[in-house]
Model the fold of this input.
Amino acid sequence: MTTVAAYAAPAPKAPLERTTIERRPVGAHDVLIDIKFAGICHSDIHQARDGWSEGIFPMVPGHEIAGVVTEVGPEVTKFSVGDRVGVGCMVDSCRECDNCKAGLEQYCTGGGPTLTYNDTDKQGEPTYGGYSENVVVNEDFVVRIPDGLELDVAAPLLCAGITTYSPLRHWGVGPGKKVAVVGLGGLGHVGVKIAHALGAEVTVLSQSLRKKDDGLRLGADHYYATSDPKTFEELAGTFDVILNTVSAPLDFAEYVSLLRTDGTLVNVGLPEEPVQITLQSMFGQRRSISSSGIGGIAETQEMLDFCAEHGVGAEIELIGAEEINDAYERVTASDVRYRFVIDTATI
Done:
């Protein structure tokens, strides 16, 4: 075991503080990653504050990890020392169920995937995330970061990127498709960039027009305020896909009315509160409400390669580790454009 520095929440809703954690020895199929940057995802805050369910504490959040391989196990074949790599939201799965065999490890039915933090591994030990100096991960759950992406802007792609890329690809977004992205935050701004790069006509639906200039700069063709009732009248029956990235309850009937026949509203934001859906809003035009998690490992690599090819990286604000708690407050206040990334050299 190796002792490394990290930032952890010692208890639910407690401020994060500098501490030390134990990392397992590098096994035969493991790689040791010197973490360079770790993104702050809103889900880090939900979990550190027990917003979704009871967590495992002390908790070291962070599932947007970018770094460099510093050691490999004797049977590793995919990576070498010095490789630029990333780790996302999961670090293992059962490997045996139909979904795992199909490259859908995120939907593992053999007990679910092992999450990068706030989970236990197959040995029953707690998993600790990227707000730390290094991490040991099985090579099968590590992805390569292409040279065309800087590590700091690539880190958020390991969650925000794949969380938006996977549903956009699954629902066939591309040229000739009209896509709306609800919310221009940490998830939404990456979703806009990716949808634009895929060739779709992209509209941002945000509560106000405060970020309109940013939205258009990032690749949106149109920008509307959802606080204006005329928006829902003007855009009725417009979109093939609506990607909802906000983590708050919406009036789903209003948003479903914006879909074309056979259109789909896909939810990737996860509110802490229960939400209500009016089934009558979907009748008549064969509209759907769905959801999507992250992507599998192969699709995550595909996403990174796509982003490198199209120059897509996250818009970030780089912070030191001592600023994590302030960053949490700013995220909940929507005061970030658009993703905080921790320089882990400051841990």
